[in-house]
Task: structure prediction
Amino acid sequence: MAIDIIMPQLGESIAEGTVIRWLIPAGQYVEKDQGLLEVESDKVSLEVPSPASGPLTEVLIQEGETVPVGTLLARLGTETGNGPSAPANGVKESPAKVAEATEEASDYYSPAVRQLAKERSVDLSQVVGTGAGGRVTKKDVLAFSEKNGNSKGVSPETTQTPSPVQTVGSAEEILPLTSMRRTIAERMVNSRNTSAHVGTFFEVDFSAVEKVRKGRNLTSLSFVIRAVTHAIKQFPILNSSWSDGGIVIKHDINISVAVALEDGLLVPVIRNADKKELAQLGKEVADLAQRARSKQLSPEEVQGGTFTITNHGGMGSLFSTPIINQPQIAILGVGAIQKRPVVINDAIAIRPMSYLSLSFDHRVIDGATADNFMHKVKAVLEQEDWEKSQ
Result:
């Protein structure tokens, strides 16, 4: 008896996902809970484990294809023929339901397909679908568009693992876009086109922070998160989003933390960060970063953020003007902490200094509010009695 592997639900309101990479080739034996494939939506990339031990008998959806949630991706044989005792993430045991979902997909146009068709001025009713159940995919829209002489828009989807570099003459080469890189590009351009980006910079003395960090397993990022939550409570407008009906103030302070990956980045969320101690913040940041890099985050862990922090100083960067993580209205950048001479009480001293930047949406807040917010962040980092806040 075969087990059906389906495209899992990758988050609330997510209607489709992309098969990034099959970790086990068709015909090969796989152990229960061993990674079977990697899938990705526009919000998260994760690894789907095998629900049972047995051979991967059939692969129906190839790498790079985007299909609706519930689409049959592959079939797995079992050692006993009885199947697993309970369904796992990305697994459905009812072939009838899968067939029904696939049948419905033939008339279904995903938001991504509709957007691409709009950009390319393509009438979807004229496009022949090659996806599961005859569904129209991005590749179909692109092929139709190029056949009819419209070269506007993006190139066809590629797999998450880049294919070999294409040589164009002797002076240049083309590195194919991964699904994640394409998504990041679309989000960044959309953010620039949506928000009125403005930046402000503050220099911060981390001496008080370093005294507490010395000999303890704490990172400076934990202190920055704490300072930001303190400042947000004084200036709650920074914890908001824009809407045509008015500015939406968020009561929960959920801090998104940018995590660099080998082929892009993810932004997992620390929920209710204002209610957590420094040690707990440090543990959560480390855990989320580790699982982001190993593709073990759940969709919920990258949703619901209200303010973003990006630590671009890890490799020595001093200044940055980060792009706002929509639909938030601000993002804080943390530069490298370096010892340098500064003037303290008319004397020169050596202090661990860092530049903090704030990119904010001028539709929602003005420069004075942004600067007052940053002044509070700076004051907390420099003056708070961190010893008593442990």
Observations:
- The mean pLDDT is 83.
